[in-house]
Amino acid sequence: MPSSALPDVLAVTPVVHRPDAVVRPPGSKSITNRALLCAALAPGRSTLTGVLFADDTRAMLGCVEALGARVEIDEQTSTVIVDGIDPRSAAPAALYARQSGTTARFVLPVLALGSARRVLDADPQLRDRPFGPLVAALRELGAVVEEPLRPDHLPLAVTGPVHGGQTRLPGHLSSQFLSGLLLAAPLMRDGLSVKLTSPLVSVPYVTMTAAVMAAFGVRVDGIDDRVSPAARPDGPPGRVDPPFATVAGLRVAPGAYRPADFAIEPDASAASYFLAAAAVTGGRITVAGLGTGSLQGDVRFADVLERMGARVERSADRITVTGTDTLRGVDVDMADISDTAQTLAAVAVYADSPTRVRGIGFIRKKETDRLAAVVTELRRAGIDAVEHEDGFTVNPGTPAPTRFATYDDHRMAMSLALLGLRTPGIEIAGPRCVSKTYPHYFTDLAAVRG
Prior knowledge:
Blueprint lengths: L8 E4 L7 E4 L5 H12 L3 E6 L5 H13 L2 E5 L4 E6 L8 E4 L4 H11 L6 E4 L2 H4 L4 H9 L3 E3 L9 E4 L5 E5 L5 H10 L7 E5 L6 H13 L23 E2 L8 E4 L8 E3 L4 H14 L2 E5 L12 H8 L2 E5 L2 E5 L8 E3 L7 H8 L6 E4 L11 H11 L4 E4 L2 E4 L7 E3 L5 H7 L9 E4 L11 H9 L1
Parallel strand pairs: 2-15, 3-14, 6-7, 10-11, 12-18, 18-19, 22-23
Antiparallel strand pairs: 1-23, 3-5, 4-5, 7-9, 8-9, 11-13, 15-17, 16-17, 19-21, 20-21
């Protein structure tokens, strides 16, 4: 059922037999929002296929239309046709990002490209999330940024034009600030050079930004996306280190986007729930459309499951996880795949030893404080979980029947529901929050459950 038809409280029924299923999650939210903005900034007609239609991507669709791009939508075929514009000559406008952090952080630098005053606002949840580093960078580049309610928070009014050049940006808070600047960079008169003042988190999302920009004719220089040996499937057991090297600085020359036909792959963060479901239930689940050729770093969640003892098969366009009778706890740095940390917390409940997650202190500034929230909810179920400054530890146990709170966070709802596949009496309060990125999640989960 679609998320709008979900009850206020949803009971999750345990599996009776080990699942054996193939699932294809909807299109990647992260790629959809990057491709929509690149298409909107490319004068001419672009066709996007495999588009995700969810709250976050509808927010981006609304913003690119507010900028002046023309959009044709066909939800039946997951296709969007975009007639792009040059935002430097756009008129004053008011844009609304709903609860979508990617939309707001990607669009804000685009608003600074022209001389018209443009206002960006959002739902109260996103108004509480900070934009300070991006505001500071835009001001350093010459934009006037007004903060009518709170410093460094939405709503923000932006007046340009920024001419580009050089700016500095902390990398440890959010990769979305850097991606937003890169997306606007080719339309700055002098291009843009960004020097990071602290190590970058979620590096795969920046390499994804560069790959989508390249598909629309713009090159990003300075990315080092070499995989570290510890992250490879044949690497040492136990400790799992970040899969990508650190990016120190990036450069984009002045230029222009070109329209393109672009296919969007399934969402790897969404896929993590089904790969985890196989590990938790001892079943066999294949995610179609994702594999070794994916643009998304979150496909490496399968590597973590493999370290825990699950069997993983990979090809260019699919990943299969088969659960085993024993799951081992791991010590894992998830700085580059932080959107799957709550998924791992659910799997860790059923391991035979503690799991320690590190490197993700920055997810306290997501839709909710995800570290505090996941620890609180696991404790509610009687699981010994410990919150740390940079992550959490989950000690395995048997969950008690529990009604979990979701904090209006889609990833809390989707990850905690996994416990219900194995443990009776699990309920999810506020399940409709999955509409943010995966409106049909519970329908797909029920199909896998059988």
